[in-house]
């Protein structure tokens, strides 16, 4: 597993846990950073968490627009976190090819979510990836 894959997984863990605890992801991030007994998250994981938190409204609007038949609130929580990270990278991480973003998200869904989540995430992020250049401009 690559360093970026591990960072995505750590970011996913924090975003998922923040939602489960009903707290701001940045608050949980601060707790994690201040906990010397826990391994460090790393710069990329921290940037993903900050990026998703700082752009959550726009990200969720895009997810709602492209998740046919699903509201963001109705999605499984792990899928929601995976999609948020993927959408953030597609829109704001210029150094990550869109195909890598989508593939990493699909693989995370296959490992951590339902049997249908990989296809669902592939479809939603694939649509966002196709319009991401226009959204950045």
From TrEMBL:
GO biological process annotation, one example: DNA-templated transcription termination
Keyword annotations of the record: RNA-binding, Transcription, Transcription antitermination, Transcription regulation
Highest rank taxon of the organism: Bacteria
Annotated NusB/RsmB/TIM44 domain residues: 6-129
UniProt keyword RNA-binding present: yes
Pfam families per record: NusB
GO molecular function: RNA binding
Matches recorded under Gene3D superfamilies: NusB-like
Family classification: Belongs to the NusB family.
Entry function: Involved in transcription antitermination. Required for transcription of ribosomal RNA (rRNA) genes. Binds specifically to the boxA antiterminator sequence of the ribosomal RNA (rrn) operons.
UniProt-recorded name of the protein: Transcription antitermination protein NusB
Species, as recorded: Nakamurella aerolata
Gene field: nusB
């Amino acid at each position: 597993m690559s360093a970026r894959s591990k960072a995505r997984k750590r970011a996913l863990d924090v975003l998922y846990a923040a939602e489960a605890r009903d707290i701001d992801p940045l608050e949980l991030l601060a707790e994690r950073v201040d906990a010397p007994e826990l391994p460090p998250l790393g710069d990329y994981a921290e940037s993903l968490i900050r990026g998703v938190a700082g752009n959550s409204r726009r990200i969720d609007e895009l997810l709602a627009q492209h998740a046919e038949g699903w509201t963001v609130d109705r999605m499984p929580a792990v899928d929601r976190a995976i999609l948020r990270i993927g959408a953030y990278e597609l829109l704001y991480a210029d150094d990550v090819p869109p195909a890598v973003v989508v593939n990493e998200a699909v693989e995370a869904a296959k490992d951590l979510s339902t049997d249908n989540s990989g296809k669902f995430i592939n479809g939603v992020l694939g649509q966002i990836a196709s319009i991401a250049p226009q959204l950045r401009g």
